[in-house]
């Protein structure tokens, strides 16, 4: 399989075998890691709050989104997959076959949380009805998650 072939997994069903199940497990791994990083960031903000006489405590509401965006943007942008995706043998590819950059990885996670928040997760069911097993936020940025 050449690099050009991998950009079109619809022609290679083996590239999509078990992707839904692997993505769910990868999400749980990534969410756990983001929560650990969030707790560390909260401790740092707490200490900064003491130093700044409470001013830094205004950041608490933004800590989780910032950590999640940085986590996904850096990991997808630098390695083409989050640590959870790599653990499950998945890779994140753009429809053009290119590796995504930081902004595409960050936008991907922003779309995921916004879409699942407003639809209560029902938008995730869209993967059951398309041949490439893509979710709504994958389609919006033109990406596919496939087996590495």
From TrEMBL:
Q: Which UniProt keywords apply?
A: Membrane, Transmembrane, Transmembrane helix
Q: Output the Gene Ontology cellular-component terms.
A: membrane
Stated membrane topology is: Multi-pass membrane protein
Keyword Transmembrane on entry: yes
| Lineage: superkingdom | Bacteria
Q: Which organism is it from?
A: Terrihabitans soli
Give TM regions. 25-51, 57-81, 102-129
Q: Which InterPro entries match?
A: RDD (IPR010432)
User: Which residue range or ranges hold the RDD domain?
Assistant: 22-141
The record's principal subcellular location, in a coarse class, is membrane
Question: Where found?
Answer: Membrane
Task: Identify this protein by name.
Answer: Membrane protein
């Amino acid at each position: 399989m050449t690099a050009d072939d991998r950009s079109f997994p619809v022609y290679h069903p083996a590239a999509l075998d078990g992707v839904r199940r692997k993505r769910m497990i990868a999400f749980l791994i990534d969410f756990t890691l983001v929560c650990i990083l969030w707790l560390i960031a909260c401790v740092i903000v707490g200490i900064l709050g003491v130093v700044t006489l409470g001013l830094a405590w205004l950041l608490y509401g933004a800590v989780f989104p910032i950590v999640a965006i940085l986590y996904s943007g850096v990991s997808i942008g630098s390695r083409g997959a989050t640590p959870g995706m790599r653990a499950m043998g998945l890779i994140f590819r753009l429809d053009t076959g290119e590796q995504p950059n930081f902004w595409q990885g960050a936008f991907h996670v922003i779309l995921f949380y916004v879409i699942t928040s407003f639809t209560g997760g029902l938008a995730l069911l869209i993967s059951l009805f398309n041949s490439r097993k893509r979710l709504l936020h994958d389609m919006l940025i033109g990406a596919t998650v496939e087996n590495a």
